[in-house]
């Protein structure tokens, strides 16, 4: 069912089924004298966008008529580019991988909406997922006349990310003022980590947002409480253009507070609660694997906060039907299978600072303690 605006209870859901194919994409470029004029068409695309496709893939796209120069289709790879030419590459529509589409509303007012994101749904466009995202469902919802959002011209947007395999609370802003405030909350928390000055220590105690996760990890944690301060950086990794985030001594500061909720010696696993005071990408997955307890089912991160398998020298030049690279054989960050849930969020309202809001996302059964399970019976 669709939710009414300003709904706070009971919980409701919204979402539209995904079309079989998305609408494709158009990428625009203008040739500049300084760097691009005089290049051939194939040289321009294969060098500037080498992360999109190998050389043979770009040749296929050109021969397929997917590139225009000043509005005219050009199929000659050696066509010479001149200053001011307008180039457009048309990425043809494709069927995106399966993904859930229903989103549960946990809290909503005129400034923001908090969603319960299911695992398997990407937040923002990227890679193979350009349409099947939380952002697209928010845009479809706003365009319908089911709420005042369409009348107000509001376009809700996520202000932070959750990994595709992570479930739970996702905050979205409905106004520019709320977006600025909420984004600042997340940025401020991260910027304070690593600064031990008294002023920042005091400010840390008064942070505007607190995030608590549930996770199920491999092995038995002996300590009841652990503070992890391992820095997080990047390394080259196949299929991840900007580099894979990993535990790295030269990385940026990160802080996670881990508390054991329940140990299961028979299954050799531990249920934990994690409060993060910084927001580095994949922080919880990296930190827990760093201390020797990767998330149960995590296909990517292994003990030490590093990928399970890695060969930086191997480059796959094969290409898919659309000319782009084949999906990497090795695991990538968007792969699912692990158990991580953004469970609770406490924050100052983005426009009414005196108002403190606590939001809770219902726990998946596998992330409940035995006592919590019994309470629901």
From TrEMBL:
UniProt-recorded Gene Ontology molecular function terms: pseudouridine synthase activity; RNA binding
Catalytic reaction annotation: a uridine in RNA = a pseudouridine in RNA
Listed name of the protein: Pseudouridine synthase RsuA/RluA-like domain-containing protein
GO biological process, one term: enzyme-directed rRNA pseudouridine synthesis
Residue stretches making up the Pseudouridine synthase RsuA/RluA-like domain: 112-289
CDD domains: PseudoU_synth_RluA_like
PANTHER family reported in the protein's UniProt record: MITOCHONDRIAL RNA PSEUDOURIDINE SYNTHASE, RNA PSEUDOURIDINE SYNTHASE 5
Entry-linked Pfam families: PseudoU_synth_2
């Amino acid at each position: 069912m669709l939710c009414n605006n300003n709904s706070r209870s009971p919980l409701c859901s919204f979402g539209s089924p995904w079309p079989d194919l998305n609408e494709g994409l158009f990428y625009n470029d203008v040739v500049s004298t300084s760097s691009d004029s005089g290049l051939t068409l194939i040289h321009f695309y294969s060098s500037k966008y080498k992360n999109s496709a190998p050389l043979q893939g770009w040749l296929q796209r050109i021969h397929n008529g997917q590139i225009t120069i000043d509005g005219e289709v050009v199929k000659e790879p050696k066509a010479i580019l001149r200053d001011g030419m307008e180039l457009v590459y048309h990425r043809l529509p494709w069927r995106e991988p399966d993904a859930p589409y229903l989103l549960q509303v946990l809290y909503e007012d005129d400034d923001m909406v908090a969603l319960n994101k299911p695992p398997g749904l990407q937040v923002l466009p990227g890679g193979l997922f350009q349409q099947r995202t939380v952002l697209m469902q928010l845009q479809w919802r706003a365009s319908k006349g089911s709420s005042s959002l369409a009348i107000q011209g509001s376009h809700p947007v996520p202000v932070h990310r959750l990994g595709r395999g992570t479930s739970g609370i996702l905050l979205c802003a409905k106004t520019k003022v709320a977006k600025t405030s909420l984004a600042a909350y997340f940025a401020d928390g991260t910027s304070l980590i690593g600064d031990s000055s008294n002023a920042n220590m005091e400010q840390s105690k008064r942070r505007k947002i607190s995030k608590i996760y549930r996770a199920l990890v491999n092995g038995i944690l002996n300590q009841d409480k652990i503070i992890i301060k391992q820095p997080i950086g990047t390394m080259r990794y196949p299929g991840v253009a900007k580099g894979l985030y990993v535990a790295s001594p030269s990385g940026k500061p990160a802080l996670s507070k881990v508390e054991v909720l329940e140990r299961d010696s028979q299954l050799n696993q531990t249920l934990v609660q994690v409060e993060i005071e910084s927001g580095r990408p994949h922080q919880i997955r990296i930190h827990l694997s760093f201390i020797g307890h990767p998330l149960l089912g995590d296909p990517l991160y292994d003990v030490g906060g590093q990928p399970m398998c890695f060969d930086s020298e191997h480059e796959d030049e094969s290409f898919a039907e659309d000319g782009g690279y084949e999906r990497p054989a090795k695991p990538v960050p968007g792969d699912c299978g692990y158990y991580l849930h953004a469970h609770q969020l406490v924050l100052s309202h983005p426009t009414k600072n005196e108002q403190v809001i606590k939001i809770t996302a219902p726990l998946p059964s596998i992330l409940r303690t035995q006592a919590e399970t019994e309470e629901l019976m």
